[in-house]
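Blinded run. Sample ID left blank on purpose so nobody reads anything into the name before looking at the predicted structure. Input follows.
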Amino acid sequence: MVVVPVFTSINAAVKRMDMWAKMSRLAAPAHREFYERPGEVRRQARMKKEYSRKMQRIRELFRMDQEQRGAKK
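Blinded prediction complete.
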């Protein structure tokens, strides 16, 4: 009699864990990729940051240039 609830609770726990695993897989494919190839993912993140910094700088320079041209006229 005691065996049945133990099994059902284990079953429920396994189901819950499975559901949680599915949810986390759906929610975070990027994390899975990070575990599979951490170096590659880090490199991509760094490239993205560098690119956004460069673009920010270019926008700044462009804005300054536009302002200077506007001041000349």
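Unblinding after everyone has recorded impressions. The mean pLDDT is 76.
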